[in-house]
UniProtKB/TrEMBL annotation:
InterPro entries: MmgE/PrpD_sf, MmgE/PrpD_sf_1, MmgE_PrpD, MmgE_PrpD_N. One of its GO terms (biological process) is defense response. One of its GO terms (cellular component) is mitochondrion. One of its GO terms (molecular function) is aconitate decarboxylase activity. This is IRG1 decarboxylase. Residues 5-148 form the MmgE/PrpD N-terminal domain. Belongs to the PrpD family. It comes from Tachuris rubrigastra.
Amino acid sequence: TITGNFANVIHGLNANHLTDQVIERSKRMILDTLGVGLLGTSTEVCHKVTQYSKIYSSDLSSTIWGHLDFRLPPLYAAFVNGVAVHSMDFDDTWHPATHPSGAVLPAVIALSEAFPQKKRISGLDLLLAFNVGIEVQGRLLRFSSEARNIPKRY
């Protein structure tokens, strides 16, 4: 099936598929996203979701960007950090319109922080996870008839 084929391709990706060019571009995308996200922590919408998310607690916790003294469960950390990135609306963009890194990087970082200390992932593993997320998003975008019509709707 199409879904099975899609899952097999994604599942089969490994660090050997990361070329030097992909690694270099990924690092640039990550740096850009972190910069935009840190700036976004000062927005009103980010303050609101941060306050809302403070009601959640867990034994697992991940960093909220720009807040050294405040951590959240990975799901909510990814949400708050993703809002911070998107609130600035100048994070990276594909055509048709989507912001790939703002959706992927906060989730990858939040999940990576949730691993036990002795099972921490490497930088290469983080780059692989980031690229798998970008690849999934790109393939879903190409499968979507809705996405192809975005430029016509705006």
